[in-house]
Amino acid sequence: MTYTRRRGLAGLLFLAPYALSFGVFIVLPILVALVLAFMQFDLTARDSIKFVGTKNFVDAWKDDYFWQAMRATLAYVVLMVPSLLVTALGMALGLNAMTRGRNTVRALLFLPGMLNVAVTGILWQWFYNGEFGLFNFLLKSFHLNPAPWLSDKAYAMPSIVLMSLWWTLGGTSVVLLAALQQIPRQLFEAAVLDGSGPRALFGKIILPLLKPVLLFVVVTNTIAGFQVFGQPFLLTRGGPELSTRGLVQYIYETAFNNYRLGYGAAMSWMLFAVVAIFALIQYGFLRRSTA
């Protein structure tokens, strides 16, 4: 065996564990879910398993609970993505302007993102607790009425978004900060010599050069937003009155609480289609704006 072939074989051997894991834990479940989407598969009545074609998709289309969950998911995405983008960009601009302590602040910002969503959820349950929570304690300290953070429909979704914002802000800010630091300083110096102010610097230099990274942030966080599960599940269990039950939680409850695996798989593929459509629209829009 030649040296080149030995090198190639060694590379394949190193790649094999990952390829095997990817096939078993990613590709195989996707294929199984695709098959189940066209089946009636109820774990409580296994003898009734049969092929039903597109019936599961039609049932989901007519399911009021499916659309209620879709609306809750869309509300989360619409609130979360712009809030994260604006806040993270502002934080990155502030960090980029700092001359001392930047690394310390960046590390502190990044710390919440290192926590597991379960730990974050437990922490914010305490923050939002109506009797002894931190936020209501602060409101009472200023002689203000306590707020029903998780028990009122008007507060519940914004409260979940606030938790998600705190959890993800650091990582997104660091990504944008890294992109800002790649902009040549000569561009800023030349613009300042030409009499450009902060608004012109942001609109004509920073924003155009950051658009590819902003595209990445918007698309990835939109995809993550449609897949949100841990935050509403831990804080509100989908309440009050199902106002925060997202589509992933409804799929989870349908498949694993009600044992309707076929119906849950069909809704999963419908969610995939929605996410793909939104991601492609955003990508096309931002791609044209950067051309």
Automatic annotation (TrEMBL):
Instruction: Report the Pfam families cross-referenced here.
Output: BPD_transp_1 (PF00528)
Q: According to its UniProt record, where is this protein located?
A: Cell membrane
Which SUPFAM superfamilies is this protein grouped with?
Answer: MetI-like
**Which domain of life does the protein's organism represent?**
Bacteria
The protein's topology relative to the membrane is:
Multi-pass membrane protein
The answer to whether the entry has keyword rRNA processing is no
The yes or no answer to whether the keyword S-adenosyl-L-methionine is present is: no
Give the transmembrane ranges.
12-38, 74-95, 107-127, 155-180, 209-229, 266-286
GO biological process terms, alphabetically, are: transmembrane transport
Keyword tags: Cell membrane, Membrane, Transmembrane, Transmembrane helix, Transport
| Sequence ranges assigned to domain ABC transmembrane type-1 in this UniProt record | 72-282
GO cellular component assignments: plasma membrane
Cite the InterPro entries for this sequence. Answer: ABC_transporter_permease (IPR051393), MetI-like (IPR000515), MetI-like_sf (IPR035906)
> Where is it mostly found?
membrane
Name the family the entry cites: Belongs to the binding-protein-dependent transport system permease family.
Protein name stated in the entry: Sugar ABC transport system, permease protein
